[in-house]
Each structure stands twice: as C-alpha cells, then as structure tokens.
Amino acid sequence: MPALLTPIEMAEADRLTIAAGPSGQVLMARAGLAVADAVSRSAPLGGRVAVICGPGNNGGDGYVVARILRHRGYRLTVFADAPPDSRAADAAAAFAEWQGPIEPLSEWSDASAGIVVDALYGAGLSRDIGGAAAELIARLNASACRVVAVDIPSGIDGATGQPRGAAVKAHETVTFYRRKPGHLLLPGRLHCGTIRVADIGISDDVLQAIGPKTFVNEPALWRGLFPFPRIAAHKYDRGHAVVVSGGLTQTGAARLAARGALRAGAGLVTLASPPEALSVNAAHLTAIMLMRMDGVTGLSEILADQRRNAVCLGPALGLGEATRGLVAEALASGAATVLDADALTSFAGEADKLFAGIKAWAERPVVLTPHAGEFGRLFGPDQAGSKLEAARSAAARAGAVVVLKGPDTVVAAPDGRAAIAANAPPWLATAGSGDVLAGIVTGLLAARMPAFEAAAAGVWLHGEAGLAAGIGLIAEDLPEVLPGVLKALRAAE
Ligand SMILES: NC(=O)C1=CN([C@@H]2O[C@H](COP(=O)(O)OP(=O)(O)OC[C@H]3O[C@@H](n4cnc5c(N)ncnc54)[C@H](O)[C@@H]3O)[C@@H](O)[C@H]2O)[C@@H](O)CC1
Ligand SMILES: Nc1ncnc2c1ncn2[C@@H]1O[C@H](COP(=O)(O)OP(=O)(O)O)[C@@H](O)[C@H]1O
Ligand SMILES: [K+]
C-alpha cells in the first residue's frame, strides 16, 4: 500500500515496532546507517563532513551518522547547542557514544565541510524555528555545501509541507519506512532534493493498526480497479461519455476533454453541442460523435439514454445561470459527473446549492477538478490547514471527490481518503491541459471505475502523459501519448 504517514502516525509506527521487538536504539542505529550510506555514496573517503544535531531523536540519528562516518575514515565535526533533551532517551544514548568534538551552531561555516548532514529537527518539529538554528539554516541555504537531510529537511512540517520559520534546502533526504505528506506537498517537496526511503525494519503490520488514509498517487493505489478492456467486452461495456461543448467560439476545450475521455477508455464519446456550434465541432471530429444539445432540455434528452453513463461539464462552458442549469440537469440524470472550470466558478457564492444537488443522489459518482483559483472561488479563499486538509474538508463538504490541481495535485474523497501526486512535470501547466484531465477522468468513470480511484488514476495518467510527451507539450499531445502510458501500465500488471 503506497501509504504516507503523518509525523504522528510515524511516531505510532515507531512505538508499535518498539513494543513488538527491536529497541528504539536499534531503529535509530539503522536510520543512522542509512543516512551514513547516503553520505558515503557522494562524499570522497577522508573528506570533511559536518553533522548538525538538534535536541531530539532527529539529532540522535545525527550522532549515529557522525560515529559511523568517522569510523569509515571521514573527518567529522558535530555542531549542536545542547545535549539531547531528557525526553529523547535514544538520542541521549547515541550522544553518549559520540566521542568527537562538538561545536556550537554559531561556529558552523561553509568552510567546515563540503557535505552537511541536517539532523536538527525531524518529525518532532513543533513550533517555528528561530534563534541560532534559524540563522544557521540561512547560512547553510546560502552556501554551496551539499546537504543531506535526516528524515525531512529541518523546518519543513511533515504533515503539511509548509516551512516553519526557516527551512533547510537539501540535495538529498533520507527518510524512514514511509514518506510523509510534507515530502510531496509543495513547498516541502522542493526542499527535499532526491528522496530515499530506507527500510529500518518496521513491519507493514503496523499499517493495519494505524489505518493511514493518505497515499502517494501511484498505480498500486488503484490498479486493481483500473478498467483494462476485457476480451469479451463490447464498446458499451466500456461506457459512453458525454462532454458538453461551449458556444460557437469556445469549442476547443470540450473537444480536448472528449479526446481525453476516448483515449482513457470510454467505449464511446459524444460531444453535446449547442446548435450554433454544431458545424465548427463537426469539422473537427471523427471517432467522437456529435449531438445537438439545445439547452437544459437538450442535455436532458441526451442523458435520458442510460447508456450515456458519464458526463463532463465545464471546459469553456461559460459562466452563469445557463451553466448552473446544465450542471443541475447532469446531476439529476444519475450519470457519473465531472465538473471542471466554468461549471465550478458558476457556483461561486452559491456553493451550497451545488453541494445539495450532489448529495441528493449520493451514490452517483461526482468528481470536481478545480485549480487553486477555482477552488478558492467555490470553497472560500481562506481554507485552514494544508492543501491536503483543504481538499479533504472540501470533499466532505461537497459530498464529491475533489481533485485540487497543481504540481502536487491532491485527490480527496468524502470518506477521508486522499492521494498526493508526485509525477507531474511542470510543462503540464499549459492551456487546455486541465480540460484533457477532466476528460480522462470522465472516460474512466464511463468505464465504471469508482470515483476516487478514477480521479487518482486520471491524475496519474495525465502526469505520465506529460512525462511521455516531454517539454514543449501542448494539450493536444496529451491524449495522443496516452496509449503508450496505458500500455506500460498494463504491462506492469
Ligand atoms: N525511535 C524512534 O522513534 C525513531 C526516531 N527516529 C528519528 O526521530 C525523529 C523524531 O524525533 P523526535 O520526536 O525526538 O523529534 P525531533 O528530533 O524532530 O524534534 C523534537 C525536539 O526538538 C524540539 N523542537 C521542536 N521544534 C522546535 C523548534 N521549532 N525550535 C526549537 N526546538 C524545537 C522539541 O522540543 C524536541 O526537543 C525522526 O524525525 C527521526 O529522525 C529515527 O531514529 C527512527 C527511530
Ligand atoms: N507547475 C506544475 N507542475 C506540474 N503540473 C502542473 C503545474 N501547474 C499546473 N499543473 C497541472 O496542469 C493542469 C492545468 O490545469 P488547469 O489549470 O485547469 O488549466 P487549463 O484550464 O488551461 O486546462 C492541471 O492538471 C495541473 O495539475
Ligand atoms: K532534519
């Protein structure tokens, strides 16, 4: 299970492990060894290494690293302003075994070493960093030193990815057992550099007891429910997606979504077009079917055929009453519904009306795909907590799966499950890319994938498609590279 553990859950994993067998000192020894190995991989033997130790068990890991590296022949200096806190017994034991020099934090300079191990604070960060530690972090970040962070760069909150006061910028981070949300959420991810996850002997049995609800968005999370075509299936088994087009001069976005839906696996896709845009849509469509849709009645007629089991509204649909009417009709039809862009912004200030329409038929899947701006307009600009918590509480409030987009897209379900994406390349930030994503999710819903998994799989496929197309991609490329991505996904089954 690609679980992410919050600092509190990770402390519980440590506690359960220690209760069942190895001591905290043994876990710390393994953690320190993993970090020492990471340093050894990039530092020439005999080179200078500085280890900066804080007052808790993160600092304890640092003393272990220092001892191992000195034993291997590196020239070590430890920097710490105080011995370990009395509550960090394992760290105190590691400190007692360190028999080399200890300098105050204020003495650190980039002349001390080319490689710096950051063991100031890890999972126990509990307030903003100030004083000598903050000053040191500023000097460290301005230096040319290579920084290896123990567990998480000091100052990054493992639950939220937010810096607290000051935060180390690392080139490499070695964490233990499982990553935390703060390793994936921005800006935390940008502070981590390359992330290694070391096995320190924690058994997956602890996950049963902890019941984590946050995951990395990768295939292990949803592959079992992915609608790979079956040999005995016909196209209607693969579902029929409907995408609603905007008016005469706003048709491209819906066609991008429709093509995403078809490539993602819907057996059929129909573009529902306002009468005035029929000819322009007709000029651009081949495998995708076209139907005339005259307002709400028109959409109602199209969705009356229950085989049309998923519908996407929003891309370039226009703002206002007409769009609100179409959304209400889609939600009342019983088709799985994806709402994006204008379908979300049209409910700014009237969000509860939208949520009531969604909750009126709770078993019908609904996925909302806002970017940060649309999210703020719908759910209010001042969401408390991290992006993860914002998406989670929005999903509970709306009664829908929420895809809060960006470089660290979060997919959250009303039941509290959430997945954070780590595979999206920055060139996905291009006009129309979100329209394709809405279409991909619609295609997966048409193929009857459950909503949370369809949204997560859609986001992952979109990211992989971005990687496959590479820099320079335009939105049109995304559906066209999906077959290669799907082929690799299926081969890895
Ligand atoms: N036995 C275990 O539980 C294991 C823990 N491990 C390490 O232990 C770490 C967690 O240890 P701790 O829970 O002791 O926490 P930390 O060592 O991350 O920090 C806690 C200490 O820092 C102080 N502190 C927190 N925020 C501060 C701030 N902003 N300014 C000044 N002081 C601050 C606290 O008062 C406390 O003394 C992990 O990150 C990991 O590196 C690993 O050794 C694996 C095993
Ligand atoms: N910096 C970034 N790195 C990776 N992916 C990004 C980045 N910025 C945006 N994206 C992704 O690009 C897509 C943009 O969607 P959206 O903002 O709706 O654009 P549009 O309306 O032009 O289609 C989303 O899937 C989003 O997650
Ligand atoms: K650290």
Automatic annotation (TrEMBL):
<feature type="binding site">
    <location>
        <begin position="122"/>
        <end position="128"/>
    </location>
    <ligand>
        <name>(6S)-NADPHX</name>
    </ligand>
</feature>
<feature type="binding site">
    <location>
        <position position="371"/>
    </location>
    <ligand>
        <name>(6S)-NADPHX</name>
    </ligand>
</feature>
<dbReference type="GO" id="GO:0046496">
    <property type="term" value="P:nicotinamide nucleotide metabolic process"/>
</dbReference>
<feature type="binding site">
    <location>
        <position position="435"/>
    </location>
    <ligand>
        <name>(6S)-NADPHX</name>
    </ligand>
</feature>
<protein>
    <recommendedName>
        <fullName>Bifunctional NAD(P)H-hydrate repair enzyme</fullName>
        <ecNumber>4.2.1.136</ecNumber>
        <ecNumber>5.1.99.6</ecNumber>
    </recommendedName>
</protein>
<feature type="binding site">
    <location>
        <position position="253"/>
    </location>
    <ligand>
        <name>(6S)-NADPHX</name>
    </ligand>
</feature>
<keyword id="KW-0630">Potassium</keyword>
<dbReference type="Pfam" id="PF01256">
    <property type="entry name" value="Carb_kinase"/>
</dbReference>
<comment type="function">
    <text>Catalyzes the epimerization of the S- and R-forms of NAD(P)HX, a damaged form of NAD(P)H that is a result of enzymatic or heat-dependent hydration. This is a prerequisite for the S-specific NAD(P)H-hydrate dehydratase to allow the repair of both epimers of NAD(P)HX.</text>
</comment>
<comment type="similarity">
    <text>Belongs to the NnrD/CARKD family.</text>
</comment>
<feature type="binding site">
    <location>
        <position position="154"/>
    </location>
    <ligand>
        <name>K(+)</name>
    </ligand>
</feature>
<dbReference type="InterPro" id="IPR036652">
    <property type="entry name" value="YjeF_N_dom_sf"/>
</dbReference>
<feature type="binding site">
    <location>
        <position position="434"/>
    </location>
    <ligand>
        <name>AMP</name>
    </ligand>
</feature>
<feature type="domain" description="YjeF N-terminal">
    <location>
        <begin position="10"/>
        <end position="208"/>
    </location>
</feature>
<feature type="binding site">
    <location>
        <begin position="57"/>
        <end position="61"/>
    </location>
    <ligand>
        <name>(6S)-NADPHX</name>
    </ligand>
</feature>
<dbReference type="InterPro" id="IPR030677">
    <property type="entry name" value="Nnr"/>
</dbReference>
<dbReference type="InterPro" id="IPR029056">
    <property type="entry name" value="Ribokinase-like"/>
</dbReference>
<dbReference type="InterPro" id="IPR004443">
    <property type="entry name" value="YjeF_N_dom"/>
</dbReference>
<keyword id="KW-0521">NADP</keyword>
<feature type="binding site">
    <location>
        <position position="58"/>
    </location>
    <ligand>
        <name>K(+)</name>
    </ligand>
</feature>
<comment type="similarity">
    <text>In the N-terminal section; belongs to the NnrE/AIBP family.</text>
</comment>
<keyword id="KW-0547">Nucleotide-binding</keyword>
<dbReference type="InterPro" id="IPR017953">
    <property type="entry name" value="Carbohydrate_kinase_pred_CS"/>
</dbReference>
<keyword id="KW-0520">NAD</keyword>
<feature type="binding site">
    <location>
        <position position="118"/>
    </location>
    <ligand>
        <name>K(+)</name>
    </ligand>
</feature>
<comment type="function">
    <text>Bifunctional enzyme that catalyzes the epimerization of the S- and R-forms of NAD(P)HX and the dehydration of the S-form of NAD(P)HX at the expense of ADP, which is converted to AMP. This allows the repair of both epimers of NAD(P)HX, a damaged form of NAD(P)H that is a result of enzymatic or heat-dependent hydration.</text>
</comment>
<keyword id="KW-0413">Isomerase</keyword>
<dbReference type="InterPro" id="IPR000631">
    <property type="entry name" value="CARKD"/>
</dbReference>
<keyword id="KW-0479">Metal-binding</keyword>
<dbReference type="GO" id="GO:0110051">
    <property type="term" value="P:metabolite repair"/>
</dbReference>
<keyword id="KW-0067">ATP-binding</keyword>
<comment type="subunit">
    <text>Homotetramer.</text>
</comment>
<keyword id="KW-0456">Lyase</keyword>
<dbReference type="GO" id="GO:0052855">
    <property type="term" value="F:ADP-dependent NAD(P)H-hydrate dehydratase activity"/>
</dbReference>
<feature type="binding site">
    <location>
        <position position="151"/>
    </location>
    <ligand>
        <name>(6S)-NADPHX</name>
    </ligand>
</feature>
<dbReference type="Pfam" id="PF03853">
    <property type="entry name" value="YjeF_N"/>
</dbReference>
<keyword id="KW-0511">Multifunctional enzyme</keyword>
<dbReference type="GO" id="GO:0005524">
    <property type="term" value="F:ATP binding"/>
</dbReference>
<feature type="binding site">
    <location>
        <begin position="405"/>
        <end position="409"/>
    </location>
    <ligand>
        <name>AMP</name>
    </ligand>
</feature>
<dbReference type="GO" id="GO:0046872">
    <property type="term" value="F:metal ion binding"/>
</dbReference>
<dbReference type="GO" id="GO:0052856">
    <property type="term" value="F:NAD(P)HX epimerase activity"/>
</dbReference>
<feature type="domain" description="YjeF C-terminal">
    <location>
        <begin position="218"/>
        <end position="489"/>
    </location>
</feature>
